Amino acid sequence: MTLPGAPSLARVGGALELDGHGLDGLGQRFGTPLYVYSRPAMLRALAAYQRALRGRPHLICYAMKANANLAVLQTFAQAGCGFDIVSGGELERVLAAGGQPDRVVFSGVGKTRAEMRQALRAGVRCFNVESLAELDSLDAVARALGCRAPVSLRINPDVDAGTHPYISTGLKGNKFGIAHDQALAAYRHAASLPGLQVVGIDCHIGSQIVQVAPYLDALDRLLDLVEAVEAEGIALQHVDVGGGLGIAYGTEQPPDAADLVAALLARLDARGHGARELLFEPGRSLVGNAGVLVTEVLVLKPGEQKNFCIVDAAMNDLLRPAMYEAWMAIEPCVQRAGAAVRWDVVGPVCESGDWLGRDRALVVAPGDRLAVLSAGAYGMAMASNYNSRPRAAEVMVDAGGVHLVREREQAERLFDGEHLLPGAA
Ligand SMILES: *Cc1c(COP(=O)(O)O)cnc(C)c1O
Q: What per-residue confidence (pLDDT) applies to 174?
């Protein structure tokens, strides 16, 4: 198996390097657990989409919930990217990182009125609306501000993306989007509301999708609707096919972004929609393979049934294994000689679900550093303070060097904002 994250990630001698920066040394210098991201790897992943879309009207909106570090957002904003946001907090981050609000699409099944106002004032490009009730609230909020809210309707195309049930979003029976057979009526309603301006149509069928076919099915379903909606005189400027393209964590072989884009463009052309603006909302595929989590081995605990390798990173730092039973590669930062033993790599959190990898053949000793690979997406973004554990530091590497882009959290800051009851302490 090649290293997921190659060619950015490579073994040089016995040492694991991310774009030329030794991970063991970074773990020593900044402490562990430590997220390390490669800026060039992120830009390469983005460039694959950009190249494939060259000459076509398009906008790539990075789905920032995958990794919302300001330096990551800045990297993409400077490369011309827009953003897919799902909260007012994410909008604040985009603006703080220098992103342009007119390249922001606002997704999410439960936007508050305050968030709607905030986004209207900022001037986002579009609201991806998920229900009739949301159309009505957004209309009221926009009219109160004396403006019109640009809207796209998120359609649930009822296609099976063939992924984990928790990250599948385009099937009947999940909470996302407007059912395909109610969409035309929803567009009529939207067009009748004076506070709204209909601008597009969108979908997002799931995450970690490793086939092109579900995307083509979803696009066909969207284009059927585009034709029906426009036949009623409601013009749609853009078609937004969402995100969800998978990455290789292990032996998966997802399509390249270039192949996915080419297939979608060919389908648009074949159906006579070649001039229409295409939006993408990739998250994982832009950042997942560009990051690793470095952790130190605390204790080895061989047992009768299982051997436990206890490390200083836990489910609060990286939730994917515990939450989705996700398999992520674990590699020693420096290879050592010896016979490999099978270990369950687990964290210190008081939950049996606190594991990073099971049954992994490793040669390890206490004090060694390990890297969990492909941790750039839904890693730090889902980190919590469970067990009062301060969140990890984050560094970004590029040709210019190593940049600390988020300081390690301090334990005493974790109870900022909490109050003891009055009386004797
Ligand atoms: C999460 C999400 C994305 C990005 O998904 P990835 O699998 O990270 O590419 C895009 N659009 C919407 C609406 C989302 O919720």
A: 73
